[in-house]
Amino acid sequence: MKQTTFANTGFELVTKRTRKREFLEEMNLVVPWTELVTLIQSHAPVSKTGRPPFPVSTMLRIHFMQQWFGLSDPAMEEALHDMALFREFAQLDAGATRLPDESTILRFRHFLEAHQLAIQMLASVNARLIDRGLMLKAGTVIDATLIAAPTSTKNSTGERDAEMHQTKKGNQWHFGMKAHIGADADSGLVHAVEGTAANEHDITKAVDLLHGQETDVFGDAGYQGIEKRAEAQGLGVQWHVAMRPGKRRVVDKTTRIGALKEKLEKLKASIRAKVEHPFRVIKCQFGYRKTRYRGLAKNTAQIITLFALSNLWMVRKRILVANG
How far, in whole angstroms, is CA 243 from its chain's centroid? Predict the structure, then answer.
């Protein structure tokens, strides 16, 4: 059966290249499909009865479109029926008699979660980026961001998600979870992701965000005292943690020592700024601002997938130029 491509089928009256089409064409070229499909296929069960399953490549493309456009399982099914562009990207034949329904999409996501394939996909993507020299791994920047969770109790249990908690940031309370990441200090590409409840302190996951090859680690004031913790001993890294805001405000910048301290803090802040780029991509570019599922495991798997895709999105131009 011949697969459709991004070329016109011959029936379109409008040929405008939309931003959505350009985005999908770019991601189609930069995602390492062969490696990811091979990784997933090794865990996929072989069905000998019933209707033949949809190809892993098709389901993976649908799964990624869900992350890029913030679509639920039912919304993704409807989008496949409504939008020819999505069917083309998923490599679904124009004359297909059936399309993946929301249950099929749900089962594929559960399959990825059961085999913890999200973290393996992140490692596969990063291995490709390292081979291209896009991730140096000389230093790591660590940080965490809050992800809101639904506070409504209008559900079957009449309760909020038991694995989510509330925390206070500044003068405002937040309910949800935290996404902790370790990013390359040079490129800002994410190499480690951890998900916890919102009330978990940033410092408890600091060591888990290191890959073991870095010589320097940068963090904000929330990581003050990390070098004294037992798990941080003997790692052979230099910790560069920001000064607490209260102490920084009282530094006399008119003195030579004070001016040097201020210059050092600005230098550390300029390096830490790289870690904010992945957060911006998943929240602003991919629209991920609130958890979609119940429980930390499911939401953490989604966050890991989002950061793997954000790595590709951040370096897509350089990959496309290198590929000619």
Answer: 28
The model's pTM is 0.90
| Pairing of the two strands 139-148 and 216-219 | parallel
Residues 129, 130, 133, 135, CA torsion sign: positive
pLDDT tens digit sequence for 51-61? 778 999 999 99
As its CATH architecture, domain 137-293 has 2-Layer Sandwich (3.30)
Cα angle 128, 18, 12; round to 5: 115
What confidence tens digit (pLDDT) does each residue in 7-50 have?
445 555 566 788 999 999 999 999 999 999 999 999 887 766 66
CA-based end-to-end distance of the chain: 30
CA atoms of 229 and 218, how far apart (whole Å): 16
- Tell me, what's the pLDDT at 157? 75
Beta-carbon contacts of 264 under 8 Å, excluding residues fewer than 6 positions away, are none
Q: What is the pLDDT of residue 138?
A: 81
